[in-house]
Amino acid sequence: MSIATVANGLQGLAVARFVSQAPWAFPVVETVHVIAISLVVGSIAVVDLRLLGLWWRERPVVQVADELLPWTWAAFVVAAVAGGLMFISAAVKYVTDPPFQLKILLLVLAGVNMLVFHYGAYRRVADWAEGRTPRAAKIAASLSLAFWIAIVACGRMVSFTTQDQFGPPPSASASVKAPTAG
Amino acid sequence: MLASLCGWLEKTPLSTFVQDAGWVIPLCQIVHILCLAAVMFSMLFLDVRVLTGAPRRVGVQALARRFLPPVWTAVPLMALSGAVLIIGEPRRDLLNPVFQLKMLLLVLALALTFALQKTIADASLARGDGGEASWATQITAGLSLITWLAIAVCGRFIAYFMG
Which of B40, B75, B98 to mutate to test the interface with A (most CBs of A within 10 A)? Predict the structure, then answer.
Protein backbone atom coordinates (compact mmCIF):
# COMPACT_ATOMS: atom_id res chain seq x y z
CA MET A 1 0.00 0.00 0.00
CA SER A 2 1.60 3.25 -1.10
CA ILE A 3 1.58 6.57 0.71
CA ALA A 4 -0.65 8.01 -1.99
CA THR A 5 -3.24 5.26 -1.38
CA VAL A 6 -3.21 5.94 2.36
CA ALA A 7 -3.47 9.71 1.77
CA ASN A 8 -6.36 9.14 -0.59
CA GLY A 9 -8.11 6.98 1.98
CA LEU A 10 -7.62 9.55 4.73
CA GLN A 11 -8.93 12.32 2.53
CA GLY A 12 -12.09 10.32 1.87
CA LEU A 13 -12.99 10.01 5.56
CA ALA A 14 -16.17 11.80 6.56
CA VAL A 15 -14.30 13.96 9.08
CA ALA A 16 -11.73 14.95 6.44
CA ARG A 17 -14.47 15.95 4.01
CA PHE A 18 -16.13 17.93 6.79
CA VAL A 19 -12.96 19.96 7.41
CA SER A 20 -12.39 20.63 3.73
CA GLN A 21 -15.98 21.39 2.79
CA ALA A 22 -17.90 22.84 5.74
CA PRO A 23 -17.75 26.63 5.80
CA TRP A 24 -15.56 27.85 8.70
CA ALA A 25 -14.27 24.37 9.57
CA PHE A 26 -10.78 24.88 8.14
CA PRO A 27 -10.30 28.46 9.46
CA VAL A 28 -11.46 27.38 12.94
CA VAL A 29 -9.16 24.33 13.01
CA GLU A 30 -6.30 26.43 11.67
CA THR A 31 -6.82 29.09 14.35
CA VAL A 32 -6.78 26.43 17.09
CA HIS A 33 -3.56 25.04 15.54
CA VAL A 34 -1.85 28.45 15.49
CA ILE A 35 -2.76 29.26 19.11
CA ALA A 36 -1.69 25.79 20.27
CA ILE A 37 1.61 25.92 18.38
CA SER A 38 2.32 29.36 19.86
CA LEU A 39 1.96 27.83 23.34
CA VAL A 40 4.13 24.82 22.40
CA VAL A 41 6.92 27.01 21.05
CA GLY A 42 6.63 29.62 23.81
CA SER A 43 6.83 27.07 26.63
CA ILE A 44 9.64 25.07 24.99
CA ALA A 45 11.60 28.28 24.40
CA VAL A 46 11.42 29.16 28.11
CA VAL A 47 12.85 25.74 29.08
CA ASP A 48 15.52 25.91 26.35
CA LEU A 49 16.57 29.43 27.35
CA ARG A 50 16.76 28.31 30.99
CA LEU A 51 19.01 25.37 29.97
CA LEU A 52 21.22 27.83 28.09
CA GLY A 53 21.40 29.99 31.22
CA LEU A 54 19.80 32.96 29.48
CA TRP A 55 16.50 33.07 31.35
CA TRP A 56 15.00 32.54 34.83
CA ARG A 57 18.40 31.65 36.27
CA GLU A 58 17.18 32.19 39.82
CA ARG A 59 15.20 28.96 39.58
CA PRO A 60 16.67 25.45 39.20
CA VAL A 61 16.23 23.85 35.76
CA VAL A 62 14.18 21.00 37.20
CA GLN A 63 11.60 23.40 38.67
CA VAL A 64 11.24 25.32 35.41
CA ALA A 65 10.88 22.09 33.43
CA ASP A 66 8.35 20.59 35.88
CA GLU A 67 6.22 23.69 35.76
CA LEU A 68 6.30 24.34 32.01
CA LEU A 69 6.42 20.93 30.33
CA PRO A 70 2.78 20.06 31.21
CA TRP A 71 1.84 23.20 29.22
CA THR A 72 3.99 22.02 26.33
CA TRP A 73 2.41 18.57 26.22
CA ALA A 74 -1.17 19.79 26.58
CA ALA A 75 -0.68 22.35 23.81
CA PHE A 76 1.17 19.83 21.64
CA VAL A 77 -1.74 17.37 21.78
CA VAL A 78 -4.14 20.15 20.68
CA ALA A 79 -1.76 21.30 17.93
CA ALA A 80 -1.29 17.73 16.68
CA VAL A 81 -5.02 16.97 16.60
CA ALA A 82 -5.79 20.25 14.79
CA GLY A 83 -2.82 19.72 12.47
CA GLY A 84 -3.95 16.15 11.77
CA LEU A 85 -7.42 17.39 10.83
CA MET A 86 -5.93 19.94 8.43
CA PHE A 87 -3.66 17.26 7.00
CA ILE A 88 -6.39 14.73 6.24
CA SER A 89 -8.57 17.44 4.68
CA ALA A 90 -6.14 17.52 1.73
CA ALA A 91 -3.75 14.64 2.49
CA VAL A 92 -2.95 13.87 -1.16
CA LYS A 93 -1.71 17.43 -1.70
CA TYR A 94 0.27 17.69 1.55
CA VAL A 95 2.23 14.41 1.26
CA THR A 96 3.98 15.77 -1.82
CA ASP A 97 4.39 19.34 -0.51
CA PRO A 98 8.12 19.93 0.27
CA PRO A 99 7.59 22.36 3.20
CA PHE A 100 5.15 19.88 4.74
CA GLN A 101 7.59 16.99 4.31
CA LEU A 102 10.40 19.07 5.82
CA LYS A 103 8.16 20.07 8.72
CA ILE A 104 7.40 16.42 9.56
CA LEU A 105 11.11 15.56 9.32
CA LEU A 106 11.95 18.44 11.68
CA LEU A 107 9.23 17.30 14.11
CA VAL A 108 10.81 13.83 14.17
CA LEU A 109 14.27 15.36 14.73
CA ALA A 110 12.93 17.57 17.54
CA GLY A 111 11.38 14.46 19.11
CA VAL A 112 14.62 12.44 18.86
CA ASN A 113 16.55 15.38 20.33
CA MET A 114 14.11 15.53 23.24
CA LEU A 115 14.33 11.77 23.90
CA VAL A 116 18.14 11.73 23.78
CA PHE A 117 18.23 14.66 26.20
CA HIS A 118 15.54 13.28 28.50
CA TYR A 119 17.10 9.83 28.85
CA GLY A 120 20.66 11.18 28.76
CA ALA A 121 21.89 14.34 30.44
CA TYR A 122 18.54 15.17 32.07
CA ARG A 123 18.53 12.06 34.28
CA ARG A 124 21.14 13.72 36.50
CA VAL A 125 19.37 17.11 36.56
CA ALA A 126 19.09 17.01 40.37
CA ASP A 127 22.90 16.92 40.61
CA TRP A 128 23.51 19.91 38.33
CA ALA A 129 25.26 22.48 40.44
CA GLU A 130 23.68 25.91 40.80
CA GLY A 131 23.95 27.66 37.45
CA ARG A 132 26.03 24.83 35.94
CA THR A 133 24.26 23.15 33.08
CA PRO A 134 26.24 20.41 31.29
CA ARG A 135 27.32 21.02 27.71
CA ALA A 136 25.10 18.18 26.42
CA ALA A 137 22.05 19.98 27.82
CA LYS A 138 23.06 23.25 26.18
CA ILE A 139 23.51 21.54 22.83
CA ALA A 140 20.10 19.88 23.16
CA ALA A 141 18.52 23.25 24.05
CA SER A 142 20.13 25.01 21.06
CA LEU A 143 19.00 22.24 18.70
CA SER A 144 15.51 22.37 20.14
CA LEU A 145 15.23 26.13 19.59
CA ALA A 146 16.54 25.80 16.03
CA PHE A 147 14.18 22.91 15.21
CA TRP A 148 11.09 24.67 16.55
CA ILE A 149 11.83 27.96 14.80
CA ALA A 150 12.29 25.97 11.57
CA ILE A 151 9.05 24.05 12.22
CA VAL A 152 7.14 27.34 12.54
CA ALA A 153 8.76 28.63 9.33
CA CYS A 154 7.86 25.42 7.45
CA GLY A 155 4.32 25.62 8.80
CA ARG A 156 4.02 29.06 7.27
CA MET A 157 5.42 27.83 3.94
CA VAL A 158 3.06 24.83 3.61
CA SER A 159 1.19 25.68 0.46
CA PHE A 160 -2.27 26.21 1.92
CA THR A 161 -1.40 29.75 2.95
CA THR A 162 0.01 30.86 -0.36
CA GLN A 163 -3.51 30.77 -1.69
CA ASP A 164 -4.59 33.23 1.01
CA GLN A 165 -1.74 35.63 0.63
CA PHE A 166 -1.17 35.71 -3.09
CA GLY A 167 -4.65 34.98 -4.33
CA PRO A 168 -6.92 37.22 -6.40
CA PRO A 169 -7.42 40.81 -5.21
CA PRO A 170 -10.13 41.29 -2.58
CA SER A 171 -13.66 41.76 -3.83
CA ALA A 172 -15.87 44.68 -2.85
CA SER A 173 -17.92 42.71 -0.33
CA ALA A 174 -16.71 40.61 2.60
CA SER A 175 -16.37 37.00 1.57
CA VAL A 176 -15.16 33.72 2.96
CA LYS A 177 -12.42 31.96 1.06
CA ALA A 178 -11.87 28.24 1.05
CA PRO A 179 -8.08 27.82 1.08
CA THR A 180 -8.23 24.02 0.90
CA ALA A 181 -9.95 23.71 -2.43
CA GLY A 182 -7.94 21.35 -4.55
CA MET B 1 -10.54 58.02 3.46
CA LEU B 2 -8.99 54.66 4.36
CA ALA B 3 -9.38 53.56 0.75
CA SER B 4 -7.46 56.59 -0.53
CA LEU B 5 -4.78 55.95 2.11
CA CYS B 6 -4.51 52.40 0.74
CA GLY B 7 -4.29 53.74 -2.80
CA TRP B 8 -1.44 56.04 -1.79
CA LEU B 9 0.35 53.35 0.27
CA GLU B 10 0.24 50.86 -2.59
CA LYS B 11 2.17 53.24 -4.83
CA THR B 12 4.96 54.03 -2.36
CA PRO B 13 8.36 52.57 -3.26
CA LEU B 14 8.42 50.58 -0.01
CA SER B 15 5.09 48.95 -0.86
CA THR B 16 6.11 48.05 -4.40
CA PHE B 17 9.33 46.59 -3.01
CA VAL B 18 7.40 44.39 -0.57
CA GLN B 19 4.98 43.36 -3.35
CA ASP B 20 7.76 42.48 -5.80
CA ALA B 21 10.12 40.72 -3.40
CA GLY B 22 8.25 37.48 -2.74
CA TRP B 23 10.21 36.68 0.43
CA VAL B 24 9.36 39.78 2.50
CA ILE B 25 5.76 38.86 3.36
CA PRO B 26 6.47 35.21 4.38
CA LEU B 27 9.49 36.35 6.43
CA CYS B 28 7.46 39.00 8.27
CA GLN B 29 4.72 36.45 8.92
CA ILE B 30 7.22 33.99 10.39
CA VAL B 31 8.65 36.74 12.66
CA HIS B 32 5.07 37.67 13.60
CA ILE B 33 4.20 34.06 14.55
CA LEU B 34 7.40 33.58 16.59
CA CYS B 35 6.66 36.80 18.50
CA LEU B 36 3.08 35.59 18.93
CA ALA B 37 4.51 32.52 20.67
CA ALA B 38 6.33 34.78 23.15
CA VAL B 39 3.28 36.96 23.81
CA MET B 40 0.65 34.20 23.95
CA PHE B 41 2.63 31.88 26.19
CA SER B 42 3.76 34.65 28.56
CA MET B 43 0.28 36.13 28.91
CA LEU B 44 -1.63 32.85 29.17
CA PHE B 45 0.83 31.40 31.66
CA LEU B 46 0.71 34.51 33.85
CA ASP B 47 -3.07 34.95 33.54
CA VAL B 48 -3.78 31.30 34.38
CA ARG B 49 -1.44 31.40 37.38
CA VAL B 50 -3.15 34.57 38.65
CA LEU B 51 -6.61 33.05 38.06
CA THR B 52 -5.94 29.69 39.67
CA GLY B 53 -4.57 31.65 42.62
CA ALA B 54 -2.38 28.80 43.72
CA PRO B 55 1.05 30.20 44.52
CA ARG B 56 3.59 27.46 44.12
CA ARG B 57 7.27 27.93 44.70
CA VAL B 58 7.16 31.26 42.90
CA GLY B 59 4.66 34.04 43.61
CA VAL B 60 2.66 36.01 41.07
CA GLN B 61 4.88 39.05 41.52
CA ALA B 62 8.01 37.16 40.54
CA LEU B 63 6.20 35.62 37.56
CA ALA B 64 5.03 39.04 36.38
CA ARG B 65 8.59 40.36 36.58
CA ARG B 66 9.77 37.36 34.57
CA PHE B 67 7.01 37.11 31.92
CA LEU B 68 5.82 40.66 31.22
CA PRO B 69 9.09 42.12 29.85
CA PRO B 70 9.12 39.66 26.91
CA VAL B 71 5.57 40.80 26.08
CA TRP B 72 6.69 44.44 26.00
CA THR B 73 9.56 43.41 23.70
CA ALA B 74 7.60 41.12 21.37
CA VAL B 75 4.60 43.43 20.87
CA PRO B 76 6.68 46.20 19.17
CA LEU B 77 8.30 43.52 16.97
CA MET B 78 4.82 42.30 16.03
CA ALA B 79 3.77 45.87 15.27
CA LEU B 80 6.83 46.29 13.06
CA SER B 81 6.40 43.03 11.14
CA GLY B 82 2.65 43.74 10.95
CA ALA B 83 3.33 47.22 9.58
CA VAL B 84 5.41 45.75 6.75
CA LEU B 85 2.51 43.40 5.91
CA ILE B 86 0.12 46.39 5.87
CA ILE B 87 2.45 48.42 3.64
CA GLY B 88 2.73 45.50 1.22
CA GLU B 89 -0.99 44.73 1.12
CA PRO B 90 -2.85 47.73 2.59
CA ARG B 91 -6.29 46.80 1.28
CA ARG B 92 -6.06 43.31 2.72
CA ASP B 93 -5.73 44.76 6.23
CA LEU B 94 -6.83 48.36 6.61
CA LEU B 95 -10.19 47.85 4.87
CA ASN B 96 -10.74 44.50 6.58
CA PRO B 97 -13.35 44.50 9.40
CA VAL B 98 -11.49 41.71 11.21
CA PHE B 99 -8.25 43.71 11.15
CA GLN B 100 -10.05 46.77 12.49
CA LEU B 101 -11.55 44.67 15.30
CA LYS B 102 -8.10 43.24 16.01
CA MET B 103 -6.63 46.72 16.44
CA LEU B 104 -9.42 47.73 18.86
CA LEU B 105 -8.84 44.56 20.87
CA LEU B 106 -5.10 45.21 20.85
CA VAL B 107 -5.60 48.62 22.50
CA LEU B 108 -7.79 46.92 25.12
CA ALA B 109 -5.29 44.09 25.66
CA LEU B 110 -2.38 46.50 26.11
CA ALA B 111 -4.40 48.52 28.66
CA LEU B 112 -5.36 45.33 30.52
CA THR B 113 -1.77 44.08 30.53
CA PHE B 114 -0.54 47.42 31.85
CA ALA B 115 -3.27 47.35 34.52
CA LEU B 116 -2.34 43.78 35.43
CA GLN B 117 1.30 44.72 35.82
CA LYS B 118 0.35 47.66 38.04
CA THR B 119 -2.13 45.82 40.29
CA ILE B 120 0.33 42.97 40.84
CA ALA B 121 3.10 45.42 41.73
CA ASP B 122 0.83 47.50 44.01
CA ALA B 123 -0.60 44.44 45.77
CA SER B 124 2.82 43.04 46.51
CA LEU B 125 4.00 46.44 47.77
CA ALA B 126 1.03 46.57 50.13
CA ARG B 127 1.41 43.06 51.47
CA GLY B 128 5.04 42.48 50.85
CA ASP B 129 4.67 38.87 49.69
CA GLY B 130 3.29 38.99 46.15
CA GLY B 131 2.02 35.45 46.57
CA GLU B 132 -1.74 35.57 46.12
CA ALA B 133 -3.67 37.75 43.71
CA SER B 134 -6.55 40.03 44.75
CA TRP B 135 -9.95 39.73 43.06
CA ALA B 136 -9.24 42.90 41.06
CA THR B 137 -6.05 41.34 39.74
CA GLN B 138 -7.91 38.13 38.93
CA ILE B 139 -10.62 39.95 36.95
CA THR B 140 -7.94 41.85 35.03
CA ALA B 141 -6.13 38.58 34.29
CA GLY B 142 -9.34 36.91 33.10
CA LEU B 143 -10.17 39.77 30.75
CA SER B 144 -6.58 39.86 29.52
CA LEU B 145 -6.69 36.12 28.79
CA ILE B 146 -9.89 36.43 26.73
CA THR B 147 -8.70 39.54 24.88
CA TRP B 148 -5.30 38.12 23.86
CA LEU B 149 -6.95 34.92 22.63
CA ALA B 150 -9.46 36.97 20.63
CA ILE B 151 -6.59 38.91 19.05
CA ALA B 152 -4.93 35.68 17.91
CA VAL B 153 -8.26 34.47 16.46
CA CYS B 154 -8.72 37.77 14.60
CA GLY B 155 -5.15 37.55 13.32
CA ARG B 156 -5.84 34.24 11.62
CA PHE B 157 -9.27 35.27 10.37
CA ILE B 158 -7.96 38.35 8.55
CA ALA B 159 -6.91 35.96 5.77
CA TYR B 160 -10.50 34.76 5.33
CA PHE B 161 -12.24 38.15 5.26
CA MET B 162 -11.51 40.51 2.48
CA GLY B 163 -12.87 44.00 3.02
Answer: B40
